[in-house]
Amino acid sequence: MTTPVPSPAPASPNAAPAPDRTRTAMGWLHTAHFLTSAPQLEHLPALDLPEIAFVGRSNAGKSTAINTLTQQTRLAFASKTPGRTQHINLFGVGKQKVDDAVLADLPGYGYAAVPKEAKLRWQRVMGNYLMTRENLRGVVLMCDPRHGMTELDEILLEVIRPRVEQGLKFLILLTKSDKLTRSDGAKALSIMRLQAGGGEVKLFSALKKQGVEDAAELLWRWAHPKE
Ligand SMILES: Nc1nc2c(ncn2[C@@H]2O[C@H](COP(=O)(O)OP(=O)(O)OP(=O)(O)O)[C@@H](O)[C@H]2O)c(=O)[nH]1
Ligand SMILES: [Mg+2]
Asked: Could you tell me which residues belong to the region Disordered (predicted)?
C-alpha cells in the first residue's frame, strides 16, 4: 500500500487554489480608495507604485468596471452621459492601509459631441500618459463589442506596442457582455483576439458580474509579479 504524499502548503497566493486566489484578489481590490485627480499629465504625482490604467472609448464602461472590480458603488464616477470622466483619477489599493498599486481611471475618447480642439488635446494627454508614465505596469482597454475596435482603440494599441514588447501588461475587456447572446459573445472574442495580436481578451459584464473575478486575479498578478 502506498502512503499518500501530502502536497506542500501553497507558498503564495499565486500558487494557492483558485477560490483563495480569487478571494485574495477581490479583497485586495476592495481596499481601493481615492488618491487624486488631475486634469493634465503634469499634475499627476510621480508615484513609485505599479499603476494600472483603464482606457477606452467614452461610455465603454471604464468607471463602472473600476467600481465593480473594487466592489464599491461610487468610487469612480460612472454615468449615462458619455464624456463624464474628464480628469485622470487615481485610486490607491493595498492591504493593511499600505498602498501597493494604483488604478487610474482615464477619460474616454471618441465622444462625438466634444469639440475638436478638446478631443485633440485629450488625445495628446493620453498618448503622453501611455508613453511616458514611468510606473505604468498594465493597461486595461475597455471595448464595447457592439462597436468593435474603433480607430482610436487601434491607435492606442500602436502607441503602447513598444512598451508591451518591454513588458507592459495588457488586457482587453469586452464590456457590457450582458447585451450579447452567447454566440455573439464568442464571435466577438475570436475577432478581438485576432485584432489584439496575442494580447489577453475577456468578456466582461458589470451587470452580470461576468469576467470580474478573472480580471481581478490578473490585475493582482500584474501588481504582485514576485508573489
Ligand atoms: N448593460 C450594461 N451597462 C453597463 C455596463 N458597464 C457600464 N454600463 C453602463 O454604461 C454607461 C457608461 O458607463 P461608465 O462606466 O460611466 O463609462 P466610462 O467608460 O467611464 O465613460 P467616460 O467616463 O465617459 O469615458 C453607464 O450608463 C453604465 O451604467 C455593463 O456591464 N452592462
Ligand atoms: Mg468614466
From this structure: 1-21
Reported pTM: 0.90
Q: 32: which 3 cell numbers? A: 481601493
pLDDT tens column, 82-132: 666 678 899 999 999 999 999 999 888 877 667 777 777 777 888 889 999
Supply the DSSP symbol for 8. P
What CATH number does the domain located at 18-223 have? 3.40.50.300
List pocket residues of ligand 1, CB cut-off 6 Å. Answer: 56, 58-64, 78-80, 82-85, 107-108, 175-176, 178-179, 205-207
Delimit the domains of the chain by residue range: 18-223
* Residue 201 near residue 141, CB atoms below 8 Å: no
What mean pLDDT comes out for the span 181-198?
90
Q: Which comes out higher in pLDDT, residue 146 or 7?
A: 146
Give the residue whose CA is nearest to atom 2 of ligand 1. 176
Beta bridge partners of residue 89, listed in sequence order: 37, 105
64, 77, 125, 180: which to mutate for ligand 1, most atoms within 8 A of CB? 64
Q: Which three cell numbers mark 1?
A: 500500500
Report how far ligand 2's centroid is from the alpha carbon of 180 (Å).
22
Q: Residue 143: name the closest of 118, 109, 114 by CA.
A: 109
Ligand nearest 61 Cα, by number? Answer: 1
Helix or strand holding residue 169 (H, E): strand 169-174
